[in-house]
Structures are given as C-alpha cells and as structure tokens.
Amino acid sequence: MRYFDSHCHVQFDAYDADRAEVFAAMQDAQVGGILVGTDRTTSKLAVHYADGKTLFASVGLHPNDKPQEGYDDAYYEALAKDPKVVAIGECGLDFFRPENPEAEKARQKDVFARHIELAAKVDKPLMIHARPSKGSMDAYLDAYEMLKDAKAKYGDRLQGTMHFYVGDIETTKLYLELGFTFSYTAVLTFTHDYDDVVRFIPRANLLSETDAPYVAPAPNRGKRNDPLAVRSVVSAMAVIRGEDEETIREALLTNAKRAFRLG
Fold first, then answer.
1. Each residue of 70-127: pLDDT tens digit?
2. pTM of the entire structure?
3. Domain that holds residue 65
C-alpha cells in the first residue's frame, strides 16, 4: 500500500454496479482502506468485502442515520470479533439537526456509550462521527466528556480517530490529550476553513480519508466519490502544511497502520 483511506463506504449500494472495478482500481493504485459500517446491514457487508490485507472493516451504528434501528449489543460484538474488523463505529454524537433535541441527545449518548464499552472489550479503536450544532462545538465537547471518563476507566484500551474532523484548535487539544487521531477528507481541496487546525495537529496524529461515496474533491464536487480520491487529500494536506508530499504520504500510511494495528 502507498495510500490509506481510513474511512469509506464502498459496500454501500452506490457501488452495486461497479464495486469489483472500484476494488480493482484501488489495488492497482495501491490504495488500502477501511469499509465503515453505519448500521446492521452495512456493517455486515463491510466484513464480507474486507480481505484483511489491504481492505479492512469497521462495524457500528451511525448516531442518527437510522435511529429506528436500535443498537444490538450481541450482533455488533459478534461482528467485532472478526479479525478483519479493525475499528468500532461509525459511532458518536450528531447534534446538527435533531428534531427532538433532548430526547435525541440522550438516545445518542446511550448508543455511543455502548460502542465505547464494546471497543474497550475487544480492544479496537473507535471510529467517531461527531457533528456539532451550527456555530458550536457541542457534539465534540459532549463526546469528549464521555471519552475522558472512559479513558480513566479503560486506559490504553480506549483509542479512537475523529472521522471527518471539523473541530477547532481548542477542541483539538482535548482530543490530543486522549491520544486520538484526526482524519480529513477532500474538503481540504475546496475550502480553507480547516487549514489552521491541519497545521496545528502533530503529523503523527493525522489520517486521510474520502468518506466515499460522499465529498468528492474539486473539480468533481457533486459526483460520486471513490477511495482513489485519497491521493487528492494527501496532496492538499501537504500544501496546507507546507511539507513534502511524499513525507506526508508516508506519515499518513504509517499513522493508519499504527492507529488500526494493521499488519
């Protein structure tokens, strides 16, 4: 592998027509990745398509994509024990547009707490989705309080990465205290909103991702994304940080191997 997409969804139905071709293109371009589940079905499919060599899986229930589904502890624990599973999630807190804020926050915190317990039990890092309400860092701060308590309880068995990170520098400092990593998408190719934070985060705590099929890089915005776009993320990150692209590429690959304990 030369590149690593730490968060993509090639098991989603957006790829039903050409999934094999996407996987082949990833192999040709030496792009590895983690297929991230967001519910029962996509978590199971992530494990199914993972090969444990360059393609891995993460299993969990997204904070608010399918609130009616409910979290099944036994189901996710069984999936999590598969050796191809390298993370627990996508899980966390999403406060962007809750219809019933207090009840929804309570539900999400309960589900997130159960993911945290599972991650500690199987000794695999969390794949965290945190989306704050507009103009605040509330989801990040609430998640941090839960994770800080869990870190005190579980110690080094509690690790994680902040997927599609949009936090500010002060919030970043909190998660650095936990030893977490921060993953960026191709938004770096069309906005400068996160440049200061990208420069602030130590190189050893950075990861690259695509969140494919979402968030295609410029100039392909609005089109279906794929994991090969992780190369654009690496290039953009190198420019933002003023560092050599090959140095960044090697560091991001090394970071992913360490964070997810890849062979």
1. 999 999 999 999 999 999 999 999 999 867 888 999 999 999 999 999 999 999 999 9
2. 0.97
3. 3-259
Torsion sign over Cα 235, 20, 260, 175: positive
Q: Cβ neighbours of residue 8 under 8 Å, at least 6 residues apart?
A: 33, 34, 35, 36, 209, 210, 211, 212, 226, 227
| Token output for 124 | 């695999």
Q: Whole-angstrom Cα distance, residue 219 to residue 214?
A: 14
CA distance 205 to 167: 14
Q: Supply the mean pLDDT for the chain.
A: 97
* Residues 189-221: tens digit of each pLDDT: 999 999 999 999 999 999 999 999 999 999 999
Q: Are 129 and 167 in contact (CB under 8 A)?
A: no
How far is Cα 166 from Cα 3, in angstroms, rounded to an integer?
Answer: 22
Which domain CATH number covers 7? 3.20.20.140
In this structure, are residues 231 and 30 in contact, taking their beta carbons and an 8 Å threshold? no
Where do runs of H (alpha helix) occur along 73-209? 73-80, 101-122, 138-154, 169-177, 195-200
Answer for the pair 199, 177: CB distance below 8 angstroms, yes or no: no
The pair of three-digit structure tokens given for residue 49, joined into one six-digit string: 């398509």
Domains in the chain, number: 1
Calculate mean pLDDT across residues 119-144.
97
Contact between residue 108 and residue 131 where contact means Cβ atoms under 8 Å apart: no
